[in-house]
Design a protein that fits this description.
Blueprint: H1 3-10, H2 43-80, H3 86-96, H4 127-143, H5 147-167, H6 172-178, H7 181-188, H8 193-208, H9 215-268, H10 322-338, H11 384-395, E1 402-405, E2 408-409, E3 432-437, H12 442-447, E4 457-466, E5 478-482, E6 501-507, E7 515-520, E8 524-525, E9 535-539, E10 542-549
Antiparallel strand pairs: 1-3, 2-7, 3-4, 4-10, 5-6, 6-7, 8-10, 9-10
Helix pairs in contact: 2-3, 4-5, 5-9, 7-9, 8-9
Length: 556
């Protein structure tokens, strides 16, 4: 009988039993079939899951490696084009000694990139710029897999944090500690990296001991020591970068010097002597004496005349006190001394991408504060995107009634743009055309014919200005007409037989400067007729402004 039924008849409670446990009987033992203990069914699933996890990890690692390579390549491009940010200089410094660098990806112009002192990159940056720099450094730390490269970026992080801390106002507790900061810096500054490491071990041992010590002092000393240790390590990194770069430059300069020396020897040796076969060389000619350059005596007429009166173009300049100017000069010299770097070779005229049809007045742009030492290139836009747009427009050529127009006017800029501390200002490139033609008015019909045509006059312009790297692409560049001497639209101050002119100024956002051209001031024809061809658009980084002047017909 079932034990539960038997217990119910006897009037007692049955023994508790799990429904999944085997049935128990005094006479017969009936058990449920046990489930297989092995996990053979789930084993393939787990194997597939582990393979997918490994594959996902591999994909993520490859993606991080790709992003890191692209970030370094972008930094090189921005440095080469003269629009580098502080993080780009730090990335270029590491590129020279990067052990994970692929030699097959080496750029031909790498040796021409400037190498600057990494500590000097932080000079002159405000708190907002340091915050952006710290975020960029953290991105490199997250992407880097090489241990040495991670140590490099962590060192940069320590120095960046120290710079930000110095810019913030001190609290009441920090003022007391900062009273001895100068003495601590004076103690730690001359020590080498190895000496600072041994001193760090001693300080940490003293803090762990139970000796009665001034804890605040020793903690501040340890904090300052870590900063100076990072600076010392940075000096070692910079020295290794300099050694690597100097060796490459020295080898290249030696090859160039040998080539120049060989050419000079050929030039100075004079024409080669022709000796007939069988005849002896004259004994009197033993060596060729080199020809020396003529010596020019000094003369006072070569000196510039002293300025007794301020020039008109200099009157709009900034007025600064002499003492402030000298302080500024001393500060800039101190930065230059700290930033001794290997200068790059200047690009020759054969490597310039500018065309002969567009040669505006080139001037060095006002670089962001504290970054003039990094840039020695002109402020024209020579990016690859600009070059592609420029070459495509040049390939279209000019029509029979068109000429290339490059009459750029210089603009008086009293101060740098507000965004100059973030982006390097540069002038946009352009390829403009001026439309020329004949005006067959009554006078010209009377005095000229098709065999003897009248002089050509300006009938319109086609401006094509390239802004491929515009930061705010949603805001299109604009233009403005400027008339000098208080002249208004429709008025004429020109003499008889001449035409009034005005300036057309094109205005865009960062990183482009304004640019202006002098044009004939006539009324524009805004009609949409195909032969008139008015066009004002901004598409794919190109600002196009095409217009013709209205034709005036006189009725009797």
């Amino acid at each position: 009988m079932d034990p539960a039924r038997k217990a119910m008849i006897e009037g007692r409670a049955p023994r508790g039993r799990d429904i999944t446990s085997p049935r128990r009987d005094e006479t017969n033992r009936i058990s449920k079939q046990q489930r297989p203990t092995g996990n053979s069914g789930s084993r393939p699933y787990r194997n597939n899951q582990s393979l997918e996890d490994e594959q996902s990890k591999k994909w993520v690692a490859e993606e991080d490696t790709f992003v890191l390579k692209q970030a370094k390549k972008k930094a090189d491009i921005r440095v080469r084009e003269g629009r580098a940010k502080p993080i780009d200089w730090l990335a270029v410094i590491l590129r020279v000694i990067d052990p994970d660098r692929d030699l097959l990806d080496a750029d031909e112009e790498e040796v021409q990139l400037d190498v600057v002192d990494p500590e000097g990159v932080f000079e002159g940056l405000n708190d907002a710029q340091l915050e952006d720099l710290e975020a960029d450094i953290n991105s490199y730390i997250a992407l880097e897999k090489n241990k040495k490269n991670q140590e490099y970026w962590k060192t940069m992080q320590i120095i960046c944090n120290d710079r930000r801390h110095k810019l913030k106002p001190l609290g009441p507790d920090e003022r007391a500690v900062s009273s001895v900061a100068a003495d601590v810096d004076k103690l730690l500054a001359p020590k080498t990296y190895e000496q600072l490491e041994s001193l760090e071990v001693q300080i940490r041992a003293k803090l762990r001991s139970n000796e009665p010590i001034d804890t605040d002092y020793w903690k501040q000393l340890l904090k300052s020591l870590l900063i100076w240790k990072a600076k010392a390590k940075l000096k070692k990194v910079y020295q290794s970068v300099l050694d690597t770069r100097l060796e490459a430059l020295r080898k290249e300069q030696q090859e160039n010097a040998e080539g120049v020396q060989k050419k000079l020897q050929e030039l100075l040796s004079g024409p080669a002597l022709v000796v007939e076969e069988g005849s002896d060389r004259p004994n009197s000619i033993t060596a060729q004496t080199p020809r020396r350059q003529p010596h020019f005596a000094y003369s006072e007429k070569h000196d510039p005349e002293p300025l007794l009166k301020l020039r008109t173009e200099d009157k709009s300049g900034e007025i600064i006190d002499e003492s402030d100017f000298l302080k500024k000069i001393v500060a800039e010299r101190r930065k230059v001394l700290k930033l001794g770097y290997v200068p790059s070779r200047q690009l020759g005229p054969e490597k310039s991408t500018s065309s002969s049809v567009s040669k505006p007045n080139i001037s060095i742009s006002n670089a962001p504060p504290g970054t003039q030492r990094f840039s020695a290139v002109v402020n024209e836009d020579f990016s690859q995107a600009t070059k592609a747009l420029y070459d495509r427009e040049v390939a279209r050529g000019v029509n029979e009634n068109e000429e290339i127009f490059a009459a750029e006017e210089s603009l008086t800029i009293t101060s740098a743009p507000q965004w100059a501390d973030k982006y390097r200002p540069r002038k946009p490139r352009y390829f403009n055309r001026v439309q020329m033609g004949y005006e067959w008015n009554k006078y010209n019909q009377t005095h000229y014919d098709h065999d003897n045509p009248p002089p050509k006059v300006v009938q319109g312009y086609k401006f094509n200005i390239f802004y491929p790297d515009l930061i705010d692409k949603a805001k299109a560049p604009t233009f403005r007409i400027i008339r000098e001497n208080g002249r208004k639209r429709g008025e004429s101050f020109a003499a008889a037989g001449e035409e009034d002119t005005c300036l057309i100024r094109f205005i865009a956002g960062p990183p482009y400067e304004d640019i202006a051209f002098r044009i004939v001031d006539k009324e524009w024809d805004y009609s949409a007729k195909r032969d008139r061809g008015f066009r004002s658009s901004f598409d794919k980084g190109i600002l196009q402004l095409h217009f013709q002047f209205k034709k005036i017909y006189y009725r009797k």
